[in-house]
Amino acid sequence: MIDKQMLKRIKQLSKGLTEEDVAEFGRIMEAIAEKDKTEEDEKLLPDLFLLFDDAWTSDGIIYPLLHAVESFEVTFYTKTFLKTLKDSYGHAPESMEWLFIGMMNHDLALEVIKENIHLADKETFLALLDFFENDEPLLEYHKQIIAELRVLVNTFSKKTGTGDGGGGKPAPKPEPPKFEAPKVEKPKAVVGDTKEYRVLKKGRVLGDGIEAHHMPSKAYLEKHGIKKGDGIAMNMKKEDHVLTRTYGNRNNAQSNLKSRDELLERIKFLSKGLTEEDVAEFGRIMGVIAEKDKTEEDEKLLPDLFLLFYDDWTSEGIICPLIHAVESFEDSFYVETFLKGLKDFYNNSKECIEGQFYRIMNHNPSLEILKKNVHLADKKTLLALLDNIENDEPLERHKPIITELRALVNT
Prior knowledge:
This protein has a domain at about 5-160. It has 27 helices and three strands.
């Protein structure tokens, strides 16, 4: 049994001030998660809900607490969530939305919400629905669930559920409205899925044991003013997530500087294409990079992406996603980065870099940027690249471009 003194200790540990605190917090949460629950344990759940803090960045605090609260019996857990929602939502709205997603995607928990919605403070529950509805992207499945819950909360608010029907007798509950089950596929978290965090979290299911690992870490994103929802994350099993470098309080100021390297190490390994799963994961990460709005931190990644090209590749599942990722950057930035790093890029992968050079020549806006910034490239390397292209029987339309570029390089 956890007494008041231990609860005070847990609250202190949840601040995650040191790696030791995070480790001890994790051990306590794991003990709670694994034990058979007694009535005394159940009294702890409201206090655990109030531990959530939207300012947290440490996965070593967030996920152990999540597993602890979701280890309680589903009906009891969901009812307690509803009863305490006013206090817990006022304390940590983003975290409560996160828990709420897990319940909406869990059949039994969703039914418990529908049947016991009167337990929640009406104003707070509607605020939660508003918060979730405004947190794009909103899946079609969730749109239908939210519409149903809005009707139910207005039908079964605390006032209608416990009001006085006259003579001191409780007012009878109205008949619940009838709804058809959503006709779209229910979201589900899949290990290996790599997307922006705000997309991944919409698929979490209560108690599924799948965690989203930010790459780079949430602490790193926060340090550079990037919303954690915009960060790239990958769904992982709990036992794999705890092995990552930034799990727990390992993402301190020093290791934050390595967070981009952590992502690069993973990408470099996957780019070897050793298994179909590695190729698929590489493609998903490149797809996220290609589709997202680029930040200054993303732009720092481009030189490293150019250095991933490898002439001996045979898998289009590696080559094509990487091309789409590097070419998704703004044209001027892409071409200037290409020129500035050309010496290293070309030494690393002549054939692939020549391929990218052809693509720049075939794109008029990029070609104009190239001409204006040819001075950014190492002269000897650029002339060697032009020699190779010229010796490779270029198309007739490329010949005058090569001649013009030679003149610009020498000028």
